[in-house]
Amino acid sequence: MATQPSILREFCPLYYLLNAIPAKVQRGFRSVLVYLTALDSSTDFLAVGSSIGMLYLYCRRLAHMNKYSLEGKCDAITAVKLLSCFDDLVAVGTASGRVAVFQLVSPLPGRNKQLRRFDVVGLHKGSVTSLAWSTNGMKLFSGDDKGRVVFSALDLDQGVCKPVLLLEESSGVVQMEYRHQVLLVSTQQRSLLYCTQTQEVLQMGTKPRKSSGRFGACFLPALCKQSDLQVFAARPGLRLWRSDIRGQVEDTRLLKPLFSTQIPQFELFPRPAPIGAYRPAERQLGLLSCFLREGWILSWNEYSIYVLDFLNEVIIGALESSGDIVSVSCCDNEIFILKGDRDIVRLSNSPEGLASNLSELSVRLTSPLTTPT
């Protein structure tokens, strides 16, 4: 019997996006290949980091690509994070531990009229792995693979960025989220909650994990006060914790039985399989995000992407790959996946831009995949 398809699928390859990013660039007399290394998405923008230290920012509303250079040393971008508040902001982290914030130009009255960049240097000792914004854009948190978490206070009116070292963990930072003055940090060994008002650190659960790995955590979406916040945390062995804001585990879900039945697969357009493909013997959860509907959770690591219905205990869809998943981002009803060296996939329950501009969509559907040099 054929595997049931998921309600989420790829409607069309993102030719328009990939065609706007060069496959190679000239560096003096050398031709340098451009690999795509990081990804974030919003309703307004798609942000793609590259191996040459160039940020490619696609404005979805205007169907226009901009590029922003970090300048100086050619340093691979390892993390990007978008924020739309009074101004549009994008934070970038690199392999050498540099963090930069771009304040974008806006045509709207009273908004920023000149591109500005703020730099955070000297505090990270390793590759930046995660970035998290406060909703007003005044706080940026950055974590690295050595376990350091840096807090940068931004004053956009004064053009000032003040970074300080906030936490130093014994293992690398995997994922971070910030909500109601609480920073949720997942490392290779544990998940913790840091209250920025009291500087109190609370560990989720009573002990660190027995096995280290890229297990993430996320807040449940809710308009609530700090004391009502709840957290989902991935655990080894396809287990999921739900805890309160004090790190007390209130519920443990054993998800392994869900994987013993046929798993609905995300339908993708055909692609060549990676060479030397490897899959781990056991499935695991990874980084976490709440997605689309109440109780739906997006989990991903380099080998797999799962959308799970936590309330009804069913798998909505899956993509099981071979170690080539680089970055995953979701917004509204869309999931964007960066795979391999330069492949970006959009999963959704509806085609892109269907309601907004049918004529633009028809152009995208007929575009051949030709990559500029």
UniProtKB/TrEMBL annotation:
<dbReference type="GO" id="GO:0032527">
    <property type="term" value="P:protein exit from endoplasmic reticulum"/>
</dbReference>
<dbReference type="Pfam" id="PF23756">
    <property type="entry name" value="Beta-prop_HPS5"/>
</dbReference>
<dbReference type="InterPro" id="IPR015943">
    <property type="entry name" value="WD40/YVTN_repeat-like_dom_sf"/>
</dbReference>
<dbReference type="InterPro" id="IPR001680">
    <property type="entry name" value="WD40_rpt"/>
</dbReference>
<protein>
    <recommendedName>
        <fullName>HPS5-like beta-propeller domain-containing protein</fullName>
    </recommendedName>
</protein>
<dbReference type="InterPro" id="IPR036322">
    <property type="entry name" value="WD40_repeat_dom_sf"/>
</dbReference>
<feature type="domain" description="HPS5-like beta-propeller">
    <location>
        <begin position="34"/>
        <end position="341"/>
    </location>
</feature>
<dbReference type="InterPro" id="IPR056499">
    <property type="entry name" value="Beta-prop_HPS5-like"/>
</dbReference>
<dbReference type="GO" id="GO:0005737">
    <property type="term" value="C:cytoplasm"/>
</dbReference>
